[in-house]
Amino acid sequence: MKKIIVLIAVATAVVLLLFSSLFIVRSDQFGMITRFGKVMRTIDKGGLYFKLPYPVDQVLFIDKKKKVFQPSPLEVFLPDDQNIVKNITMGYYIIWRISNPLQYFESLRDENLAQVRLENNLRAIVNNTVGEYSFSSFISTNPEELKTEQIALRITDEAQKNILPKFGITIEKVDINRIILPEQNKEKVFERMVAERSTISNRYRAEGEEQAKIIISEANREKSLLLSQAEMEAQKLISEAEAEAASIYADAFNKNPEFYKFWRQLESFEESFNDNTTFILSSDDPMLLEGAF
Question: Would the pTM of this model clear 0.85, i.e. be above it?
């Protein structure tokens, strides 16, 4: 009986040791095996792995996923820009991830400390980069003057060069998401923006009026041309109709001159007489001669 109990205890201990020696690393994690505080192995692929039982070996898991960090808004001084705005407060955010877990572990270990170091390092880069641009690069009614995308790309590039070697962190993106004007400058900036927008609207209005004149002139020219062509066509049709009528009259006259003469007299009477018409004719008037009717 004692032997069975001992075997069960040994088997249980072996199972527990086995389970404490196996661990799973997810695909979105790094795994790091430390032995008495010293890093022995770094795992960058998900799966089932083996280590020595606790407390000899311990496993640390480090997140691979991208993270978004929004530092405190930063006041940045700008070059002289017509004495309107000398400084702005700029909000920006950082998208970053851990790409070298060993370097990250040895230099930072903690995400909160990583954010502090990121902000401290980015401040210098942002100040140096933004300080090269005028105020109109950030706020302008002219889209061609805006340089925020270019500025963000430059900051990202500088951050990638300087931060990865120090902390094992890759900067995916730094972007500007907020521009805050000093209170004393807001009114002047808005007045300037209104003036710029007014200039643009006046230019568009003048261009529109000029275009309208061109369109109206072209329409009038086309109208005159169409009317002229229509009038010419109408005259042509009238001439052809009159010629056709004359031809018909001539054919009728040639076939029966007496009837044609009679028909013309009837037409003449119809055009000459109405309800109130009085004719005074002499006895020898051709209209009263025998055979006139």
Answer: no
The predicted structure's pLDDT at residue 234: 85
Residue 161 sits in the same domain as residue 255 = no
Say whether both 24 and 133 belong to one domain. no
Total structural domains in the chain?
3
Biggest alpha carbon distance in the chain?
171
**Residue 83 in this model has a pLDDT that exceeds 50:** no
- Render the chain in DSSP notation, one character per residue: -HHHHHHHHHHHHHHHHHHHHEEEE-TTEEEEEEETTEEEEEE-S-EEEE-PPTTTEEEEEEE-S-EEE-PPPEEEE----TTT-SEEEEEEEEEEEES-HHHHHHHT-SHHHHHHHHHHHHHHHHHHHHTTS-GGGTS-S-GGG--HHHHHHHHHHHHHHHHHHHHSEEEEEEEEEEEE--HHHHHHHHHHHHHHHHHHHHHHHHHHHHHHHHHHHHHHHHHHHHHHHHHHHHHHHHHHHHHHHHHHHHHHHHH-HHHHHHHHHHHHHHHH--TT------TT-GGGSTT--
Same domain, residue pair 54 and 145: no
First-residue to last-residue Cα distance in the chain: 159
Residue ranges making up the domain that contains 49: 2-63
Model confidence over 140-179: pLDDT tens digits?
777 788 888 999 999 999 988 888 778 999 999 999 988 8
Q: Give CA–CA dist 125/90, Å, rounded.
A: 13
Question: For residue 229, what are its two tokens?
Answer: 């062509």
Q: Say if CB 189 and CB 85 are below 8 A apart.
A: yes
- Report whether pLDDT(291) > 60: no
